[in-house]
UniProtKB/TrEMBL annotation:
Record's protein name: SDR family oxidoreductase
Keyword terms, alphabetized: Oxidoreductase
Molecular function terms from GO: oxidoreductase activity
Family under the similarity heading: Belongs to the short-chain dehydrogenases/reductases (SDR) family.
InterPro entries reported for this sequence: NAD(P)-bd_dom_sf, SDR_fam
């Protein structure tokens, strides 16, 4: 049996990148999967490839983030696991970030997970059922680069929220964990490197050479770890925000 056999998993922000990798891994491990995304074409293609159920949603709208749970329940009767994988990584420093950019980061990187978790936890409580939640965060939540100020602010809030929700609902057998991922090879990262850093076609090779393990983080490896955290095989662990990276936070040469 797969690690997620007989589980219904909702992946918010699942149409591309890390989220899409989690959709594929959860399906492979036996889950019934619902995932959300803004782009209909991308989402429908992934649904056709995997058999997962695509729900078009703009998670910047708190109502749509909350309703993603209701739509998954309507499709499959329940939700057992939630992954918040959507992320906005557009650049901004403390000095040049506008209120609009700041609000956009909060909307996607913090508010959307908050209200999706609210709906998922209420659903689990109504069913008196255990459940698991995994939030995709970032090692930048520890401080990050100067050009990621609004991103860091929002994701650091998500790390705190992860621990708060885990503590609040530990006696309900609802486990909540987070994954602080490092520099990862995704379609979104490719677009960011080209738009904000004038990267050429060889940016991945250059980036890989700069990393201790000789490669960037890989989506399939992250997805496998998320599936483990969602599954019963991860045991009692809750409230953990795990640094999934090859850079050791606090380590100095």
């Amino acid at each position: 049996m797969g690690l997620l056999e007989n589980k219904v998993v909702l992946v918010n922000g699942g149409s591309q990148g890390v989220g899409a990798g989690i959709v594929r891994a959860a399906v492979r491990e036996g889950a019934t999967v619902v995932f959300t995304g803004r782009r209909a074409g991308t989402g429908e293609k992934l649904a056709a490839d995997t058999g997962a159920h695509f729900v078009r949603a703009d998670l910047a709208d708190a109502t749509q983030a909350r309703d993603s749970v209701a739509r998954a329940v309507a499709a499959h009767g329940r939700v057992d696991c939630l992954v918040n994988a959507a992320g906005l990584t557009s650049r901004g420093s403390l000095l040049d970030t506008t209120p609009e950019l700041f609000d956009a980061h909060v909307a996607i990187n913090l508010r959307a997970p908050f209200f999706a978790m609210q709906a998922a936890v209420q659903h689990l409580l109504d069913r008196r059922a255990p459940g698991t939640i995994v939030n995709i965060i970032t090692t930048s939540a520890h401080g990050g680069q100067s050009f990621l100020a609004p991103y860091v602010a929002a994701k650091a809030g998500l790390a705190g929220l992860t621990r708060n929700a885990a503590h609040a609902h530990r006696w309900d057998r609802i486990r909540v964990n987070g994954l602080n991922i490092g520099w990862t090879d995704t379609e979104g990262e490719d677009a960011v490197q080209r738009e904000f850093h004038d990267a050429g076609d060889d940016w991945r090779e250059k980036a890989a050479r700069s990393q201790p393990m000789g490669k960037l983080g890989q989506v399939d490896e992250i997805a496998d770890f998320v599936v483990f955290l969602l599954s019963d095989r991860s045991g009692v662990v809750t409230g953990s925000v795990i640094d999934w990276d090859q850079i050791v936070i606090g380590g100095l040469d």
